[in-house]
Structures are given as C-alpha cells and as structure tokens.
Specification:
Layout (H helix, E strand, L loop, with lengths): L5 E5 L29 H12 L6 E5 L9 H10 L5 E6 L8 H7 L3 E5 L5 H8 L7 H14 L4 E6 L9 H10 L2 E6 L7 H7 L4 H12 L2 E2 L9 E4 L7 E4 L12 E4 L4 E3 L9 E2 H6 L4 H18 L16 H4 L2
Parallel strand pairs: 1-2, 1-10, 2-3, 3-4, 4-5, 5-6, 6-9
Antiparallel strand pairs: 7-8, 8-9, 10-11, 11-12
Helix pairs in contact: 1-10, 2-3
Bound molecules: guanosine-5'-triphosphate, S-adenosylmethionine and iron/sulfur cluster (2 copies).
The site of one iron/sulfur cluster has 12 residues, from loops.
Length: 328
C-alpha cells in the first residue's frame, strides 16, 4: 500500500482570476464565509497535532489563489518550521508573486508551481477571464522573480484546451530548454466547467508528447516532486517536461495524498466525494486532537477503498465543488 504523506491544503477558495476551465466568469460559486475558514491557529493545530502525528510530512499550499490569504508568509514560516516538514510547496497563479517571492523564500518555501497557460498575453487574458486590464505581464514578472530568488524546482503548469492554446504546445515546451524551468501539461478535467469540456474536449498527454518528440526528441527524466506527473526531457534541455494525465492514464494506484479545504474538510480523493471529514466543526466543538487523529488514521486505512475507481468507464463524476474549492 502507498504511503499517504502528502497533504494539499487549500488556504482560500477565492481567486483573482476566473480561468475558463476552473471558475469561469458568471459561475455561481458559494464562497466560504470568513468565519467558516480555518483560522491560522486551527490550521497549524491540525497540522501539528493531527496530520504530522499520523504521518504527513509533505504539504502543498494551494487554493483558490493562496497568495490572497492574509498572513500567508507567516503561515509558510510556521509550517516550514515544524521539524517533521520534509517538503513545503505552493501552487499559485503568480499574479501577486513578484513582490512576495523573496519573503516567501525567506519564510522557508523552496519550491513553487505556477500556472501559465499561454505565452500570448491576449490568449492568456482570454483564458483567465480578463476584467479590463492585462494580467500576463504581472504573471511573467512573478515567474522571473521566483526564478531569480532561487525557487527550485520552478514548475509551470499548463492546461491545454483544444482550439484555445493547443497551438502553443511547442512554444511552452521550449521554455524548458534554456532555463531550469519544468513545464507540466495537465489534461483538462471536467471539473469546474463541464460545458467548456463538452464543447472543446481534451488533448491526451501522449498526443502532446508525440508533437514534442517529432520536433526535438524526448527522453525519460526526473525532477523532485510529490505529484503524479510523468517526467520527460528534451535532449540537452536544462529543465524537464511533466505530463499529468488524469484523463488518459490511471495514477490512482500510486496515490499518496489527501486534501484539506479552506473550511476544514478533509477529502481523501479528488474525484470521489465520499468519506469526507469535517475537521473544523469537530475542532470547534471541542473534540480532542487525539480523537481527530484516530478518525484520520481510520480514513487513511480506508483510503484504498475510497480512491477513484471510475477510470475504466472513461468518465468522471459530477462534483459539488470545483478545483478552486477543493484545493486543485
Ligand atoms: N486526478 C488527480 N489530479 C491531480 C492530483 N494531484 C494533482 N493533480 C493534478 O495536477 C495538477 C497540478 O498539481 P500541482 O498543484 O502542481 O501539484 P503536484 O503535481 O502534486 O506537484 P509536485 O509536488 O511538484 O509534483 C492539479 O491541479 C491537478 O489537475 C490528484 O490527486 N488526482
Ligand atoms: C485550482 S488551481 C489553485 C492554485 C492557483 N490558483 C493556480 O492556478 O495555480 C491549481 C491547478 O488546478 C488546475 N486546474 C483547475 N481546474 C482544472 C481542470 N478543470 N482540469 C485540469 N486542471 C485544472 C490549474 O491549472 C492549476 O494548475
Ligand atoms: S486555476 Fe487557479 S488561478 Fe485559475 S481560477 Fe482556478 S484557482 Fe484561480
Ligand atoms: S483521483 Fe483520487 S485516488 Fe486518484 S490520484 Fe487523485 S486523489 Fe488519488
């Protein structure tokens, strides 16, 4: 059985972007009320007294947009300071990163994954739901600053949407050649905007690899990480290319993670909504952390049964929460 030691923590469900595939403009989302968010103290208590004792050592801060969380630098510092923390990372859209990168690094964050779906500012703005002013330049500066500060590995996440950014696959892959940037292609999943998914469909990692192979060749490779990416490299490139193939391949048998939502629900599987645990309500009701540890241990024991099993049908379900709400 896989060791489950990787917790993806959603710090906030809100976002300053409206990516078409995640939380499209106009989508009715029930945001978590401020009083329902786990406070910093509650989150740190859960990490220290529940998650670390049951074996979690790798933590990723995500959202929504984690840089919108007030006090995020202090939270990073606190989590990085736990002696048991072996890996602390963040997934961000980088819009606010340029001015925060150094502080985050100084607080103990060492690696960061940044979403970048296009190198064309107009297409980028179309994907992220431009509200009047272009955002691409801020994101690009955030990436450059993160690189300059020393985040390593620095990964760039791309979701390819047919007819929108699929003509940029080679340009995006080429970012890995001259710099130690690790570009990852994520297969579009029907969570967040099933209409767009229905209209556009998705491109398989193997199709992308074939394009890249024909242009430069492709060899297997490796990069430090806790996630499900299959890693390759353009021969001679400084960085790597990762493929996260949740639609075309099954990586559930090597699943090593659970997710904690910003309002304190522990979710054992991204694609199966059963057996979630409301840790915040329990904590606020005075349930002891010893009892919560017991409950989480029980969930860990059950996780192989909970892990998603619907791949063979080629479909996944309909979900009540989007990636931004779950901690994608
Ligand atoms: N189906 C599924 N997709 C996942 C899972 N974990 C990550 N993904 C997909 O991979 C995307 C990128 O994940 P990241 O936030 O960059 O984290 P990661 O790939 O775990 O990061 P590393 O530790 O750097 O390997 C997510 O947004 C999801 O689309 C998972 O457990 N199940
Ligand atoms: C939900 S976002 C949260 C962190 C941050 N806001 C960001 O965009 O990096 C995390 C990742 O989820 C991915 N994602 C969101 N919706 C998706 C979908 N429907 N299919 C595949 N990936 C998705 C995004 O591309 C992003 O890399
Ligand atoms: S993918 Fe990230 S940046 Fe885009 S809307 Fe979702 S949470 Fe926001
Ligand atoms: S779908 Fe569920 S079981 Fe599969 S990798 Fe993601 S979280 Fe793990």
């Amino acid at each position: 059985m896989n060791q489950v030691d990787y917790l993806r923590i959603s710090l906030i469900d809100r976002c300053n972007f409206r990516c078409q595939y995640c939380m499209p403009e106009g989508a009715e989302l029930d945001y978590i009320l401020k009083q329902q968010l786990l406070t910093d103290a509650e989150l740190l208590t859960l990490i220290q007294e529940v998650f670390i004792p049951v074996g979690f050592t790798r933590f990723r801060l995500t959202g929504g947009e984690p840089l919108l969380r007030p006090g995020v630098v202090d939270l990073v510092h606190a989590i990085a300071s736990f002696p048991q923390t072996q890996d602390l990372s963040m997934t961000t859209n980088a819009f606010l990163l340029a001015s925060m990168a150094q502080n985050l690094y100084d607080a103990g964050l060492r690696r960061i994954n940044i979403s970048l779906d296009s190198l064309d500012p107009d297409i980028f703005d179309q994907i992220i739901g431009n509200r009047g002013r272009s955002r691409w330049q801020n994101v690009w500066e955030g990436i450059q600053q993160a690189y300059h500060v020393g985040f390593n590995p620095l990964k760039l996440n791309v979701v390819i949407i047919p007819g929108v950014n699929d003509h940029e696959v080679l340009d995006l892959a080429a970012l890995s050649i001259d710099k130690q940037w690790h570009v990852r292609f994520i297969e579009f999943m029907p969570i967040g905007n099933s209409q767009l998914f229905g209209d556009r469909g998705w491109v398989s990692s193997e199709q992308l690899r074939q394009q890249i192979r024909e242009r430069w060749g492709l060899t297997e490779s490796q990069v430090c990480g806790s996630g499900p990416a299959d890693v390759f490299q353009i021969p001679g490139a400084k960085g790597t290319l990762g493929f996260i193939s949740q639609m075309s391949e099954c990586f559930c048998d090597r699943c090593n993670r659970m997710r904690l939502s910003a309002d304190g629900w522990l979710r054992p599987c991204l694609l199966n909504e059963s057996e979630q645990l409301d840790l915040k309500t329990a904590l606020r009701a005075g349930v002891s952390t010893a009892k919560l540890r017991e409950q989480v241990r029980h969930l860990l024991a059950m996780k192989p049964e909970i892990n998603f099993k619907g791949r063979d049908t080629g479909t996944i379900g309909v979900y009540s929460r989007t990636m931004s709400q779950i901690g994608g």
